[in-house]
Amino acid sequence: MSQMTFVPYGVDSPAGEYRCVDCGFELTLDVSAALPPCPQRDTEPHQKLGWEVKSGCAAVPASDCRK
Fold this sequence. Notes:
Layout: E1 7-8, E2 12-13, E3 16-20, E4 26-29, E5 33-34, E6 50-56
Antiparallel strand pairs: 1-6, 2-5, 3-4, 3-6
């Protein structure tokens, strides 16, 4: 079984949909930007501090991404 990977807070990322790996909060970036901290981190314990890529250019090889 492969290990799940995620993108840490603050990393410049392409537009797309992301899910917090700690609490499941969903975030949509309409444009490329640095991934913010999860807004739920002050109300729930967060240890991994990152986002799972659900969709968008970060979810596919760069050669498959149409801009």
